[in-house]
Amino acid sequence: MTDATNDPAATAGPTPDQARRADAADRAAGAPMLAADGTPLKKSLARSLRIQKARALMLVAPLLIFVLVTFIAPIGDMLFRSVENQIVSETLPRTTARIDQWDATSGDAPDEQMFEALFYDLFIAEARKEHTRLGTRLNYEQTGMSSLFRRSGRSLDDISDVYLDQFEDLNEAWDEGRPWAELMGEPDWIADQEEFDAAEAEGRMPAFRVRDEMLELLPRAAATYETFARFAQTEDEDSPLEEEPWGLVHTALYYDLMEADVSGYNGPQAALLKEADAAVAEFETVNFKEGMLAIDKDWGSVETWTTLQMYSPDYTSGYFLNAVDMQKTADGPALRDADERIYGLLFKRTLFMSLVITFSCIALAYPVAYLLSNLPARTANLLMILVLLPFWTSLLVRTSAWKVMLQQQGVINDVLVWLGIVADDSRLVMINNQFGTIVAMTHILLPFMILPMYSVMSTIPPSYVRAAKSLGATNWTAFWRVYFPQSVPGIGAGSILVFILSIGYYITPEIVGGTTGTFISNRIAYHISSSLNWGLAAALGSILLVVVLVLYWAYDRIVGIDNVKLGG
Amino acid sequence: MAQAASTDAFVAFERVQKSYDGETLVVKDLNLSMPKGEFLTMLGPSGSGKTTCLMMLAGFETATYGEIKLDGTSINNIPPHKRGIGMVFQNYALFPHMSIAENLSFPLEVRGMSKSDREKKIKRALDMVQMGAFGGRRPAQLSGGQQQRVALARALVFEPELVLMDEPLGALDKQLRETLQFEITKLAHDLGITVVYVTHDQTEALTMSDRVAVFDDGRIQQLAPPDELYEKPQNSFVAQFIGENNTLQGVVEEINGNSCVVKLDSGDIIDAVPVNVSKKGERTKVSIRPERVEFNKERLKEDAHLLKATVKEFVYMGDIFRTRLSVAGNDDFVIKTRNAPDQRRLRPGEELEIGWLQEDCRALDA
């Protein structure tokens, strides 16, 4: 022993005595606790925990990113489609800009300006082949819209050709691309485009630039021509210098010339323009409204325009209303006619059948799980393999097997007929209805009920039941008051699993459900893959998701999610 | 161990046998009778059949052969819940989904007792184990010792005459165990209940019981009060199992009523009391307790046979010294001496002579 060890200052750290006194002094002074190196203890702790958290996050990161990119984001995008409705305002920008001015309660179709806007929109949409998509979209809301748009698209030329022909008759030059391009385009652009055409180069054409002078002098024609030129460049990859413009441009030019004063114009093709200006006053004209009505009288109906007006905003509740058997009307949302309601019934049926399936799973799985957890490990493992066996068989195979079992010429009916229980001419209908779906899905989802039940039950020590019996409880009381409450977490876990799986089940109801045994998911799949009404499918999916979340919340409130155990 | 159970026995096992697989007997021909109010402990190594006996008494296992009687009537065919036997389990077995009060209420409810009576009894039972303030808690909120107190209260609340305890203190730490040992014993005597207690802890058995039944290999090896068990073991298993014991092997040289001379394998001669030997030439295991070995010759009889010993190891244990010696070819011969002011501390390597009183040395079966 040297003196050094007796001197506290000479040792590496504070002696326990010193440290205790220092701590006591700190606490008395209200000072924060300090770590060994003098940093506040809280900070020190946070730092050490931060590294742990970062490491944990890094371990999860690959899966997290994978799920975010491949699952959450697409699903989010898909669900967004349930309210998105930009197709109307994108396809018919001029019409939707004006449509609020129209009063649906007036009982008349809109005025001439509205039809003019519609004509422009439809003409451009037809050139881009977008009008049929819009027709399909609006057809979800009102039948007949699809054919209306398709028919209108074919016949728009009836109106524009009136002006096109008159301009052509006046001067052949209006029928060619070059004079138009010179009239409307910047000289620089024309030079660039000529160079490009001469080189026969691949790639992007020099983008059309309209002359500002024209935008002021002939606003409609310049804007329409610009649209045409850009469209020709990008979609058709034709040089505007050589392409005859749409009849729409001629139509626009007519209306511009009727209003504009071109006498002061001295730019390119001034002579041509002035000649036309002098002649247009004598032109034969067409009323847009009458023209459109001539193409299809539905344009005169209030319903058509009401639909257009209701679905003109960028976002709509229409899909959701549709998904709950309602529709937009001029007086706000209203229930559909009784014979058109389908989704309420489907949702109710889905919930009801999922509940029936869940309860039949509980009823069948509880005794099995009880037996498994009370058998010696060897036997239990053997039986567990039998329980898991269906897991290792293809879902389709199992479902098809039920089809074979349950059909009218199937195994069960044959046996019943052979036994004389059922007459040959009145075989039981057990497939393609609710019964078949419930039977097949109960069988398929049973392992999801047995496994959590088993894992919870196997953790209940037999001494509880013994204790209950030693305290005087009969077998039933011991089970019901002592064993059963402790197995409830297993039932809860199994029920949540089975219920949530079954509420979104698709394949089995599709195969054995017929018409009365199908689920809402089958309808969603139909809208995704057959009717292509993705908005409605997304709305139905969103509602299903919300229903499940609400049920989960209710379950948490009633049973308590802490009471759910999958094992341990 | 008398075959004929006394007619006033409260609990009686008569020729009870138990087999689980039909090939081996876990309990072989068990005969046991205990009077009312007795605290009897079943002690034995694991697998000795003591817990099986307890479970047969409780009704959770059925006897393969023989009869178990409670208060004179056979209970072989009475289901557990009708036997009216209180039971305390090793893991307490308190129902986790019920509060403490509900746990205690359970045995009263199933007996159809009225609410006010139940509350009275629950309060009394909880006060009895000093847990009166914990009625509203859940078992998981209590410590192990508190849970065991509640389990005890639950087993007693319906006032059974017989209470079975299956290693109730096994999971507790030493200090708590000792406190509860004392409390259980006191409670049992105060209430006058009959207790069958199962443990593998011999200290527990010795300190708590009126009588101890030492189990091995499916049989009761000895059934006796603690002091008799410790001081007068009937065979070498009991001698080995209860307390620390020194064993020397040899052959009986001379036998004369209550004393005998044994020639050890090393050639040394010692005196002993014949217990399990009857004739000359028989092999025997001689058993002597460490604290009865003496190296102070003044305390020995003059004609006592002495043995040479070499000190191998000296361990200071606080209240006692534990010294390991090499005696007659046995290197694990232990002596214990009290830590008294005049006590000698032996040093390893030291050579000495040891001896003992003849009645402390018992010649048992080989």
TrEMBL record, chain A:
<feature type="region of interest" description="Disordered">
    <location>
        <begin position="1"/>
        <end position="28"/>
    </location>
</feature>
<keyword id="KW-0812">Transmembrane</keyword>
<feature type="transmembrane region" description="Helical">
    <location>
        <begin position="56"/>
        <end position="76"/>
    </location>
</feature>
<dbReference type="InterPro" id="IPR035906">
    <property type="entry name" value="MetI-like_sf"/>
</dbReference>
<feature type="transmembrane region" description="Helical">
    <location>
        <begin position="435"/>
        <end position="456"/>
    </location>
</feature>
<dbReference type="Pfam" id="PF00528">
    <property type="entry name" value="BPD_transp_1"/>
</dbReference>
<dbReference type="GO" id="GO:0005886">
    <property type="term" value="C:plasma membrane"/>
</dbReference>
<feature type="transmembrane region" description="Helical">
    <location>
        <begin position="351"/>
        <end position="372"/>
    </location>
</feature>
<feature type="transmembrane region" description="Helical">
    <location>
        <begin position="379"/>
        <end position="397"/>
    </location>
</feature>
<feature type="transmembrane region" description="Helical">
    <location>
        <begin position="534"/>
        <end position="555"/>
    </location>
</feature>
<feature type="domain" description="ABC transmembrane type-1">
    <location>
        <begin position="347"/>
        <end position="555"/>
    </location>
</feature>
<dbReference type="InterPro" id="IPR000515">
    <property type="entry name" value="MetI-like"/>
</dbReference>
<dbReference type="GO" id="GO:0055085">
    <property type="term" value="P:transmembrane transport"/>
</dbReference>
<comment type="similarity">
    <text>Belongs to the binding-protein-dependent transport system permease family. CysTW subfamily.</text>
</comment>
<protein>
    <submittedName>
        <fullName>Putative spermidine/putrescine transport system permease protein</fullName>
    </submittedName>
</protein>
<keyword id="KW-0472">Membrane</keyword>
<keyword id="KW-1133">Transmembrane helix</keyword>
<keyword id="KW-1003">Cell membrane</keyword>
<feature type="transmembrane region" description="Helical">
    <location>
        <begin position="488"/>
        <end position="507"/>
    </location>
</feature>
<keyword id="KW-0813">Transport</keyword>
Automatic annotation (TrEMBL), chain B:
<protein>
    <recommendedName>
        <fullName>Spermidine/putrescine import ATP-binding protein PotA</fullName>
        <ecNumber>7.6.2.11</ecNumber>
    </recommendedName>
</protein>
<comment type="subunit">
    <text>The complex is composed of two ATP-binding proteins (PotA), two transmembrane proteins (PotB and PotC) and a solute-binding protein (PotD).</text>
</comment>
<dbReference type="Pfam" id="PF08402">
    <property type="entry name" value="TOBE_2"/>
</dbReference>
<dbReference type="InterPro" id="IPR005893">
    <property type="entry name" value="PotA-like"/>
</dbReference>
<dbReference type="Pfam" id="PF00005">
    <property type="entry name" value="ABC_tran"/>
</dbReference>
<comment type="function">
    <text>Part of the ABC transporter complex PotABCD involved in spermidine/putrescine import. Responsible for energy coupling to the transport system.</text>
</comment>
<keyword id="KW-0472">Membrane</keyword>
<dbReference type="InterPro" id="IPR003439">
    <property type="entry name" value="ABC_transporter-like_ATP-bd"/>
</dbReference>
<dbReference type="InterPro" id="IPR003593">
    <property type="entry name" value="AAA+_ATPase"/>
</dbReference>
<comment type="similarity">
    <text>Belongs to the ABC transporter superfamily. Spermidine/putrescine importer (TC 3.A.1.11.1) family.</text>
</comment>
<dbReference type="InterPro" id="IPR017871">
    <property type="entry name" value="ABC_transporter-like_CS"/>
</dbReference>
<dbReference type="InterPro" id="IPR027417">
    <property type="entry name" value="P-loop_NTPase"/>
</dbReference>
<keyword id="KW-0067">ATP-binding</keyword>
<keyword id="KW-1003">Cell membrane</keyword>
<keyword id="KW-0547">Nucleotide-binding</keyword>
<dbReference type="InterPro" id="IPR008995">
    <property type="entry name" value="Mo/tungstate-bd_C_term_dom"/>
</dbReference>
<keyword id="KW-0813">Transport</keyword>
<dbReference type="InterPro" id="IPR013611">
    <property type="entry name" value="Transp-assoc_OB_typ2"/>
</dbReference>
<keyword id="KW-1278">Translocase</keyword>
<dbReference type="GO" id="GO:0043190">
    <property type="term" value="C:ATP-binding cassette (ABC) transporter complex"/>
</dbReference>
<dbReference type="GO" id="GO:0005524">
    <property type="term" value="F:ATP binding"/>
</dbReference>
<dbReference type="GO" id="GO:0016887">
    <property type="term" value="F:ATP hydrolysis activity"/>
</dbReference>
